[in-house]
């Protein structure tokens, strides 16, 4: 998230930008915010749940500067940052646990899952923080995620973010994916880079 202040001498002009997300996504995020406020007993906030949802999605989708989003919505940059972190926590809490996701596939009669890693590219950071996010494999900076899908390609689980320099094998071992697959009685379809650690009943590189 960008923290730079707005340009000096800015006239404070506000413009509109299309946010390429579905109404379903906005409603989902707004619903999470609304339920969270109810749990906390919050009586009043500066912005309605729907407004907060749109601001957060704009920051995440367009990487809008916090100060710019704040100025256009009559709140502080610190408030926008708090909104973003709050929504990230709410979304993370909804993510399925790996063991439960695999057992659900097994109960539905599935035999294998598809495993793949992906690097979500990010901007280069300065100093020592830059090196850990650099992927030698992709020759780019980013964060590494592992994803599992069912046989039809439907996403069933995604890992937490890890520095781009991490290998897929290291990330998989950290999440104990092999042990969870064995416990669920499932195999995994993966690329050749994963065959060194995947020892499930039906592993096809």
TrEMBL record:
Signal peptide: none annotated. Residues 115-192 form the DDE Tnp4 domain. It holds the Pfam family DDE_Tnp_4. It comes from the Bacteria. InterPro entries: HARBI1_dom. GO terms for molecular function: endonuclease activity; metal ion binding. Keywords: Endonuclease, Hydrolase, Metal-binding, Nuclease. Its cofactor is a divalent metal cation. This is DDE superfamily endonuclease. The keyword Nuclease applies.
